[in-house]
Amino acid sequence: MAPVRELTVGQVAVRSGVAVSALHFYEARGLIRSHRTSGNQRRYSRDVLRRVAIIRVAQEVGISLAGITQAFQSLPEERTPTREDWNVLSTAWRDELDQKISQLKKLRDGLTDCIGCGCMSIDKCPLRNKEDRLSAQGSGARRLLVER
Amino acid sequence: MAPVRELTVGQVAVRSGVAVSALHFYEARGLIRSHRTSGNQRRYSRDVLRRVAIIRVAQEVGISLAGITQAFQSLPEERTPTREDWNVLSTAWRDELDQKISQLKKLRDGLTDCIGCGCMSIDKCPLRNKEDRLSAQGSGARRLLVER
DNA sequence: CTACAAGCTCAACTTAACTTGAGGTCAAGC
DNA sequence: GCTTGACCTCAAGTTAAGTTGAGCTTGTAG
Question: Do residues B97 and A61 lie in contact, with contact meaning Cβ atoms separated by under 8 Å?
Fold first, then answer.
């Protein structure tokens, strides 16, 4: 059997492990694209599988669909992304990912390291600060105002 | 000024950087505890700051409140957790955290590494499988049925 | 002692990320 | 040529994680 060129939504669902409804949803949000058959059914090109895989992995580590959408902006609309295209995306995410990795490591190892801080002041807690997206000027109140 | 022994909800909010409403919410979900003054106001012991810090960090890396709640089960109810108590929690999370760390690294480095897979079959994509919580028997369909 | 910022409760609203359901169409096998 | 499973759209429902607001109480600074 010659390799199938285009995938139906059901095939993508099975192969990617996400529900059809989720694929519709991702498409509505502009995360994936399809074209339609004469009968109005979706057909996906193969690279949708990579996109979906990345969506799921990224979500699992706490990146929102909005963030993923933004990262995906760097990918070309019409042609299948090349190695270089994916590289750009990966680079765009690098800082955020590095930060999350180090937070995770702290959570994994640092829970114990942190024990010494006593959390007298959260501002000094290595768990929260040190790599924080906030430059460490200002009180918790400032954080409260600025964050989110 | 002698160090304050107990914290009001507002003080915890400022020091931890989370809204008062969120603290109420965490308490309702059993993530933190307080006792009340004669006037029915919440008073927190200092270790609530560590709890909150951990809640936020854990959330940021994609752990749900439900997961955090579960992890917190290992902490003692009545006394302030000791170093050893926190260690137990940290250990309980280790696998999950290790897995997330490696997924993040893959996202960071592996986006490129993965380029070769072509995603002909998502089952073979190193991004999703390899460390997957699913033993790699069975198709995507199985995953679809089993997962979540 | 009184003003008023800080607390309290409880219900309702919000946003993200989907899922479910109703009602109708498409296409591959018998 | 029809039946049946896969698709389609669109609206409404769901869960998580909070936030907002109304109406009422507390406690501290002047």
Answer: no
- The span from the CA of B80 to the CA of B15, in Å, is 19
Q: pLDDT of chain A along its 148 residues, tens only?
A: 445 579 999 999 999 999 999 999 999 999 999 999 999 999 999 889 989 999 998 999 899 999 999 999 888 877 888 777 877 888 888 888 888 888 888 888 766 555 444 444 444 444 544 333 332 222 232 232 222 2
Name the residues in A31-90 having a C-beta closer than 7 Å to nucleic acid strand D.
Answer: 40-42
Closest CA to B52 of B3, B17, B4: B17
DSSP chain B: -PPPSEE-HHHHHHHHT--HHHHHHHHHTTSS--EE-TTS-EEEETHHHHHHHHHHHHHHTT--HHHHHHHHTTS-SSSPPPHHHHHHHHHHHHHHHHHHHHHHHIIIIIHHHGGGGTTS-GGG-TTTSSS-SS-S-S-HHHHHHH--
Quote the tokens at residue A123.
Answer: 């501002």
Structure tokens at B103: 């997924």
Query: Which of B16, B57, B141 is the closest to A103 by Cβ?
Result: B57
Nearest nt (C1') from A66 Cα: C16
Give tens-digit pLDDT for B47-62: 899 899 999 989 988 9
